[in-house]
Amino acid sequence: MSIRQRATLDDVARLAHVSPKTVSRVFSQRHLVSPATAEAVLAAAKRLKFRPNTVARNLRGGASNTVGFVIGELLNPFYSTVATGLERVLADNGKTLIVASTDDTAEGEERVADTLLAQRVAALLMVPVGEDQSYLEGERQLGCPVISIDRPARNLVADSVVLENRTGAFSATRSLMARGHRKIAYICNPAAVYTQAERIQGYREAIASGGRAEPTPWERLLDDPAANPAAVVADLLAMDDAPTAIIAGNNRMCIGALQVLDSLEHPPALIGFDDFDTADILGVSVVSHDAVDMGRQAAELALERIMDPTGFTRQIIIPTKLIHRGSGEHPPYA
Amino acid sequence: MSIRQRATLDDVARLAHVSPKTVSRVFSQRHLVSPATAEAVLAAAKRLKFRPNTVARNLRGGASNTVGFVIGELLNPFYSTVATGLERVLADNGKTLIVASTDDTAEGEERVADTLLAQRVAALLMVPVGEDQSYLEGERQLGCPVISIDRPARNLVADSVVLENRTGAFSATRSLMARGHRKIAYICNPAAVYTQAERIQGYREAIASGGRAEPTPWERLLDDPAANPAAVVADLLAMDDAPTAIIAGNNRMCIGALQVLDSLEHPPALIGFDDFDTADILGVSVVSHDAVDMGRQAAELALERIMDPTGFTRQIIIPTKLIHRGSGEHPPYA
DNA sequence: ACAGTCCATGACAACGCTGTCTAAATCTGT
DNA sequence: ACAGATTTAGACAGCGTTGTCATGGACTGT
Q1: Residue B260: CB partners within 8 Å, gap ≥ 6?
Q2: Which residue ranges does the record assign to the HTH lacI-type domain (chains A, B) (predicted)?
Q3: Does residue A102 share a domain with residue A123?
C-alpha cells in the first residue's frame, strides 16, 4: 500500500546520466538521439516506471490533445452513438474525448462548456440546447473551434453537422401518400427544436405537393415533456376523421405509438424517425440515419479546424434514408 | 477571423495593478482578497476574457480533475449507461470524464489505459477486456486508483463494482421451474467472460436444486462472435427433446431468440438478461439491473479512493431483479 | 590540414499557475 | 499608545515538460 513517488524526466535523466532534454527527445523526437543513448534512457525509464506527462507537455507546447463534447445526456442513444463516431476518429488522431452532459438545459450547457474550455480543449463539439451560443464567440476568436452537431449553433460562427431532416420527412410522407394515404398525422414532442421544425417543414411540403395548402388537422406538435405519447396517439385515433397513417417525429413518440397500435386490428401505417434496436423485429419502418458517421464527420471537421482555425465554416449534411419494414407500407384501412 | 492571444493571470494582474498571486487568489480563494481588489481583478479579467487554466493549475498542484473510463465500445448501451452514472457523480464533484474505447481487445485496453495514465487521470475506471490487468499494478502503487466495473480485474488489486449475476440467473431459472418447466435452456455468446460464468453457475445451481446434478443438454455456451443467435435458437427448438423455456444470457441472444419465437404458435418461455428499450412493448421478461447506478457507485468509489488511496479495496454488488412481462411466465406447452 | 557541415547533447528559460514565506498595514485590548 | 494578532498583498520558486540556442566533436571536400 506504499505510495511511491512518480518519476519525472529529471529522475530518468539522472539515472541514465544524460540531460533531461535528451530524455525528452527520446520520448518525442527519437531520431535526434543516438541509438545507444536512447537505449540507455529507455532502460532507465523502464526501471523507474516513467511515463511522460501529457499535461505538462501540452502546457509547455501550448497545444492540447483533448476535445470536449457537450451532450444532453449520454443515456440517449443518439448522443452516445455520435460520441462513438467522435471517439474513433479522435483516438486515431491521438486525441482523447472529454464528455460532459448538460441535463438538457441552457444553463447546464454554458456551465459545462465553461468547464471544458477551462481544460483548454483543442476543440469544442456540442449538441446545442440553449437558444443562443454567442457566449462562445470569444473562445472561438481565441482559437478554439466550435462544431455544432445535430442542430446549428445560434449567434455564433461555427461549423455544423446536421441531418437531412427535411428531405427525410418529405420522403416518408410521400411514401405514405403513394400508398393511398391522405390523412397523415405528424406527432412529435418537443416540437420547438431545430430538427423537428425541419421535419415538420418537410412533412408539410410533401402534403402541399399533394394539393393541400394549409397545415393538416392531424399535426400534434407538443412541447410538454410530461405528455404521454401513447395517450396522444390514442386521442388521435379516436377522432371522427382519424388519420390512416402516422409519422412519429422521434423515437419516444414512435415507441409510444407502437404501444397503442399493437392492440389494433387495423392499425394505421406508421413511420418513425431515428432507428432503434428492435425496430426490425417489430417491423417498424423508419427514416434512419448514420449517427456514428455524424460523429465521425464532426470529428474530422474539428481536426481540420484545429489545424487551421481560420477559413470559412462549413455545414455538413448527413443523409437520411427511409427503411421499409412493413409498418409504413400498408394502405389505409378506411 | 483574427486569432487573439489568450489572456493569462499575469495579463490580468498587470491590468488590475496587482500581483499575479492576487489574481490567482481571486479565482480560487476569494475570501483572502479584499472585496475592492477582487472586484477590480474580476473587471480586468472580464475585459481580457480571462479564463483560468485548469491544466496549469493541476500541473502545479499535482492533482487532476479528470477521471478516465476505459470502455469496450460506447455504442453498447450498457457501457454508455454506466458512463451516464459516472459522469453525473463526477460532474457533481468537479471532475470531468475522459472516455476511451478499446474495440474490445486486450491490446486496445492496454493502449488506451496508457494514454489516460499519461494524461494523469485522478482515477482509472474500466470494464476489463483482457485476461490480465497486472500491467496497471505499477500505476496503482503510484497512487492512481483503479476501479473495475462489471467484472473484477485480474492480477491487480482494485476495487470493483459488479452485478449480482449468479443470483439473477438463479432466480430466473427458479421462476421458470416454479411454472412447471423442466427443460430450460441457457444460451449465451460469448460465454468465456466473467458475467456469463457467474450467470451460468446461478443457472446450474437452480437446476441442481431441482434434482438434476449434471449440466443440462440445453446449454449453448458459444464463443464465436459470428454465430447467428437466431440460428442457435432454431436448432435448439428443433431438438427431439426441445427445451420449453429459454434463458438468454445477454441482450443480443435475447433479441435473436425473439426473432425465432415470434413466428411460433406455442413459443417456449423466454427470460432475457439486461433490459432493453422495447422489452416492455414486446412483453419480454428480463433479469434487469440499474446500470446508471452501477456507474454512480463506481464513481463514488473512485472519489473515495482519490481522497485516500490506501485502505482495503472493496467490491460493490449491484442487485439484479427479475421483471415479469409475460414471456417468462407461461407454462410449458408440451 | 583547414574551413565548413552535420550531428548529438546540454543549459536555460518558459508554459500558466499556486504553495510558501515574508512584509506591510490594519486592528485588538488594555 | 503599544505589543500582539490579524488581514491583505507580493516575491519567489517550482510543477514536468519542451523551444531555443549554444557547444563540442566527428565528418566532408579540397
Answers
A1: B230, B233, B234, B237
A2: 7-61
A3: yes
Predicted pLDDT of residue A262: 84
Exposed/middle/buried for B21, CB within 10 Å: 0-12, 13-18, 19+?
Answer: exposed
Note whether A22 and A42 are same-domain residues.
yes
Q: Choose among B295, B275, B301: nearest CA to B286.
A: B275
- Is B278 in Cβ contact with A282 (below 8 Å)? yes
Grid coordinates given for B154: 485480474
Residues A193-231 pLDDT 10s: 999 999 999 999 999 998 877 778 899 999 998 899 999
The cell numbers describing A300, all together, are 474530422
B182 CA to D16 C1' distance (Å): 65
Nearest to A129 by CA among A149, A158, A144: A149
Count of domains forming chain B: 3
Q: Is the CB of A56 under 7 A from strand D?
A: yes
Cell 431515428 belongs to which residue? A274
- In terms of domains, do B226 and B255 share one? yes
Q: What is the CATH number of the domain that holds A31?
A: 1.10.260.40
In this predicted structure, which of A37-46, A319-328, B109-118, B303-312 has the lowest mean pLDDT?
Answer: B303-312
In degrees, to the nearest 5, what angle opens at C-alpha B50 toward C-alphas B48 and B55? Answer: 155
Choosing among B75, B124, B308, which should be mutated to test the A contact, i.e. which has the most A CBs within 10 A?
Answer: B75
Residue B323 belongs to some domain of the structure: no
Residues A275 and A298 in one domain: no
Please indicate, yes or no, whether residues A159 and A267 belong to a single structural domain of this protein.
no
Residues of the domain holding B252: 165-290
Å: B180 CA to C17 C1': 70
Q: What is the CATH number of the domain that holds B207?
A: 3.40.50.2300
Nearest by Cα to B178 from B333, B322, B330: B330
Q: Tell me: do B169 and B286 sit in the same domain.
A: yes
Q: Which one, of B121, B79, B75, B116, lies nearest residue B96 by Cα? A: B121
Residue A1, pLDDT above cutoff 70: no
Contact at 8 Å (CB) between A113 and A134?
no
Residue A102 CA neighbour count, 13 Å, CB half: 23
Residues B113 and B30 in one domain: no
CA distance B299 to B86: 5
Q: Which residues in chain A are closer than 8 Å to B98, comparing Cβ atoms? A: 66, 96-99
Q: Which pLDDT score is estimated for A199?
A: 97
Grid cell digits, residue A280: 426490425
C-alpha span between A180 and A184 (Å, rounded): 10
Q: Is residue A76 part of a domain?
A: yes
How far apart are alpha carbons A275 and A171 in whole angstroms? 16
Same domain (yes/no): B201, B270: yes
Q: Could you tell me if residue A331 is inside a domain?
A: no
DSSP state letter for A161: E
Residue A4 domain-assigned (yes or no): no
Task: Report the chain B residue with the minimal C-alpha distance to residue A113.
Answer: B96
Strand partners, A124: A68, A146
* Successive 10-residue mean pLDDT values, chain B, 334 residues: 80 96 96 94 96 95 94 91 97 96 93 96 96 94 95 95 98 97 95 95 95 85 91 93 95 91 91 91 95 98 92 94 96 80
Angle A31-A32-A34 from CA coordinates, rounded to 5°:
85
* Confidence tier at A278 by pLDDT (50, 70, 90): confident
